[in-house]
Amino acid sequence: MALTLRPHIAEMPVYRAGKSAQPGPDGRAWKLSSNENPYGPLPGVLEAVTASLAEMNRYPDAGNSEITAAVATRHGLAEERVAFGTGSVEVLAHLIEATCGPGDEVVYAWRSFEAYPLVVQVLGARSVQVPLTATGEHDLEAMLAAITPRTRVVMLCTPNNPTGPAIPHDDIVEFLGRVREDIVVIVDEAYVEYVTDPDATRGLELFGVHPGVVTLRTFSKAYGLAGLRVGWMAAADPVLAQAVRSVTMPFAISSPAQVAVMASLAAEPELIGRVRVTVHERDRIAAELRAMGHAIPATQGNFVWFPAAGRTEEWFDAFRHAGLMTRAFTGEGLRVSIAEPDANDRILAVARGLLA
Predict the structure, then answer these.
(1) Where is the PTM N6-(pyridoxal phosphate)lysine found along the chain (predicted)?
(2) For the chain, how many helices (H) and strands (E)?
């Protein structure tokens, strides 16, 4: 007798991680496909992590107590509202696991973060994808119209990955005022440290607006801990944070990862400096690309979006041959991460020939 899988698992596509770059004609290469921080660990982080390896024979703190206290203090939150996971995507998965069952609906914009449909499908829930606007923004009116009695969760990605625009704070407040109170509204702020628009969503200020608001944050991007996998959530209702803690596997976050979080929080002045460099480069690149004629959406992440439609693969190859590995979404466009100035200059050099 053949082994069988649950149908929705057997039909799941595999998540595509960003590929590494192959050297260009001058032997140089940059990976711009995963929105990684191009800079190494912040001061003191590597030393602290290395020292922690001396006790690798011991289990980590299963309750994540030190990092929970530190993050809660840093953001003025009650500890009971906070929960951690191995990356914000795992926290998201646990939120869906805790709130949705087979047939329940999860509404989100599309295109958005590639993991959303996978997380929903693995639990047998149903994705309701609402198209973005022509400028790569969330269509909040259309999302409200997509809510049905089966809707359990709404997900908002701000800034939106891969297109870049952030949702205006006042718009999301008005939106939340029209969403049923029994719906969980997940505000994914993985790139919040790069946001400079004063009118953009401020997720932690939404708890008094709707009882089901949850914000997601990560140490993978601005903090540069992508290889150690640490994400966290804060919830308007502590019951949601407790639910995530309940379904998270014990000892999920390693001791070196927890040590890295503490050291990274202590190095935030240096973090701010690095973020400013990336933001300056992002704005410079976006402005120059628009001046060339590229329709780059307003971006508040550490990346830019090239709407390329039917030329996506052609443009992907042009960047690849120049030693730049980007993320291609066939028939839609390219997401290109901001990196070191040399890599960013090469983005511009390639982009000048794309519209010919």
Answers:
(1) 221
(2) 12, 12
